[in-house]
Amino acid sequence: MSTRDLYAKPVDVSRTWDVPMAGDSRFNWEYDNGRDRLLSLYQKGKDKQWDQTSRIDWSIEVDPYDSLGLPQEVMAIYGTPVWDKITEQQKKELARHHAAWQFSQFLHGEQGAMICAARIVESVPDLDSKFYAATQTMDEARHAETYARFLQEKLGLVYPINDNLSKLLEETLRDSRWDMPYLGMQVLIEGLALAAFGMLRDMTTKPLPKQILSYVMQDEARHVAFGRLALKDAYADLTSAERDEREEFVVEACYLMRDRIRGREVWGVVGLDEDECDGYVDSSEFMKLFRNQLFTRIVPIVKDIGLWGPKVQQAYLDMGVLDMGDADLDALMKNDEDLAEKLDRDRQEAAEVERRITEIEQTIAVGAGEEAVAVD
Amino acid sequence: MSPVRAALLDAAYDAAVGTGWGRARMGDVAAAAGVSRQTLYAEFGSKDGLAQALALREATRFVDGSEAVLTGHEGTPSEAIAASTEWTLRVAREDPLIKAALTDDGSDGLLPYLTTRSDTLLAAVTARNVDYLRSHWPDLPVDDIEFVADTLVRLTVSHIVSPASPADVTARSIAHLVDRLLPGGTPQ
Question: Which chain A residues have a beta carbon less than 8 Å from that of B28?
């Protein structure tokens, strides 16, 4: 079925969205002086490829109206007059639309990440970075494929890309300097997504989204590591004007992501007042927490790569997320990898238990049959 | 001025008057002018650079307008200065960008470009005034002229930011002061 039929708002899928290309495709003839840390990241990228068709258990049934198994309190309008007015059926519909909106932005974001990673393959000067970015391009393709399948097969509903997300993607891609797509896409947009993945991974009570989010996050740890390596080196040599420009971009992008990418379009689609409901997003206790938590990954990376001037610090102070700069990134990323591996082990053990139970049942059945024969 | 630069300044003007400068995004300004963020930064360097350029362009507009009043005036130089200052004060009070700068609540608005960060603007406007005064009081020492021009500009800006009396009254006082400060020369 064409995705056109699943979009919550009309999307002309016969037309592509074209962002003009900027910058050079660079060849490099030195094949022998890669940096060890980048080459080992490249090796890890090759070793850790996985395939959604075999690693994810798509046979798990999903109730599209309760796909994530989240409590009602997570709805921004929970406890407001609007919430009291709507029917149970509308609440279920809202849960489906919110999940579809969220995962659709993940999906479109992953497509953007794939295109940006491919751009880095082309434009970054060093071959070790090109090799690594090629594996990341493949990672992002697998993620987009996985999110698309979840939306199409399990929710049966897809949202168009949020206007402000596409604005940010365009700003990022139209820049001809190799670091800008990386800063915009990998550090900011993916950093935001990673935090959102993490919160949903930890909150969901449903096995399928848990698998998807855990495995995607396992790959993201490499992506973040690359961003830190590549940008930290590059940013050590910036002039103050170049640094200021990037810091202004970080500040604008963070405010945009916090204030304008928050599912406003969903309210209208399900027949509620967009302005009223969007207003509740500012006062909802859960949403306040959620929107702050979106910066848990971005802030420490921005600090780590050295874009930590007064404007950035002031913005993070205003947003109440400055302290996140001190988070231990390595530990966070290690934890993401460990959780994915633990999920694999738990699933193997559960499958093993399942297999033994079946075996025992069969033995009992056979034994019962023999007994029956003996009694005869 | 290149068409791109002009389009970017127009977009910056609209953003400042629309959402307020503090909330204006460089990305949106670039998009409104139909160029990339990169082009915007190549042109102006930073948001501060863009604000400085915008303030300068607007100030130039004011100087052009007030000079038109001066040169078209048939009275004494003092009367001409009164008329042009009055014109400046009146237009400033109705100017959307100045209104936006004066009412912007955040600390990151445009007001500093008329106050603590007004040096570029003051220097440019003062230079134009020096040219005018020299052509009318050619006998006077340049130092005196510069002092008077600087005083005239600073007073006018101060009355724009914080008006005390009606524009015509203020303008007459300023012209009177200029007259007193330039007594020795022969006006032409």
Answer: 167
Chain B CB within 8 Å of residue A245 CB: yes
Q: Which of B28, B30, B41 sits opposite A245 (nearest CB)?
A: B41
**CA distance linking residue A284 with residue A268, whole number of Å:** 19
What is the model's pTM?
0.86
> Distance from A3 to chain B by nearest Cα, in Å?
29
pLDDT single digits (tens) A331-369 = 999 999 999 999 999 999 999 999 999 999 999 988 887
pLDDT one-digit tens code per residue, A148-175: 999 999 999 999 999 999 999 999 998 8
Contact flag A252-B38 (C-beta cutoff 8 Å): no
A311 interface with B at CB cutoff 8 Å = no
ipTM of the complex: 0.79
Q: Fill in the DSSP letter of residue B153.
A: H
